[in-house]
Input
Amino acid sequence: MSRKKAIGAKLSKPTVDGIIPPAGEPSPAAGRGIAAYAISTSDLNPSWMLLYGGTLALQLVCALLRGIFAYAFLWLAFTIAGQSTVHVNALASVVAYGPLVLSFATLILPLGGWWWQQQSGGRPPSERERFAFEDAITTLTQHHPGLRPPRRWFITDALEPNAAVYADTLMVTRGLLESGYLEAVLAHELGHLNSSDGRLAAALHRMTTPPRWEIQSELRFIALLLNGGLAVWLTRAPWAVYWRAREYHADRYAANLGQAQSLAMFLENNALENDIPVPFMWLTATTHPSTEHRIDRLLQHAQ
Output
C-alpha cells in the first residue's frame, strides 16, 4: 500500500452480485450503501490496534505543540485585526486535535476518495472500461457473492498496470484494464477493501496535516512536529512490517478467489524486475515484501 498511503499492489475491489458502482458515486450494491463500510468486529485486529494506539499517543504530543502554535498565531492575527480573541482557544483546539478526531472517525466509517481522485488526475470510466470492469467483477463474485464493493472507483490514464485503495475508494489504471490481468489484480485489492487495510491507510494519512511533502530546510524538524509527520516517521518500521504482512494476506485472498496463478504471472511480468536489494529491511519503511516470495506463496496456493 504509497502510502499517501493508498494501498496498492495492483488490484481493486468488486461489487456484490456483479453490480459496478458509478465512478465517483456511492454504490447501491447489496443494498447496504454506506453501512457496508462501518467498522465491525471482523475488522479489528490486535496488531494494527496496538500500532495505531502507539502512533496516536505520539500524535497527541504533536497535536499539543500544534495547538500552542495555532493559539499564538490566531491570537496575534485577531489582535492585529482588532477582533475579539474569545474564540481563539476553541479554534486552536480544532487545529490541534481535529486531524486526530478525523482519523478516528475514519476508522469507524472510512468515507472519502474524491480528493484523492482529483490529486491523482483520475476520471470516470468510459462505457467500454465499465464493461471490462464489470465482467471481471462478475467472475470474482462467483467465488464469493458477499464481497464488499468499493463505494467509489475511478480511472487514471497511466500505462503502468496498477491499482490502489484508500478508505472506501478504488483507483484503476488504464494500463491494468488493457493488461489481461484485471481479474487477478482486482482480487488482490479486494483483499485490502474487505479487511481493515483501506480504512487504516486513510486513518493514518488523516492523522497528519499539510504540508505532507518532504521539507528540505532547517525548519524540517519543526514542520514534522507540527504536521504530525514526526509520529509517522518514528513508527515507520513497525508499520512497514505490518503492511508487508498485509500484502501476503491480500495475495491469499486473491488465491481464494481463484486468481493465484494469474496473480503470480502478473507479478512475474510486471513487478519482479523492479525489486531491488533493501539492506536491513526490517528497519525501513518498505511496505511490500519480496516479489519472488509473493510469487512462491501464490504458486503454492495454486497447487
About this structure: The first strand starts at residue 7 and ends at 8. The chain is about 55% helix and 5% strand. The beta strands are 7-8, 152-156, 163-166, 169-173.
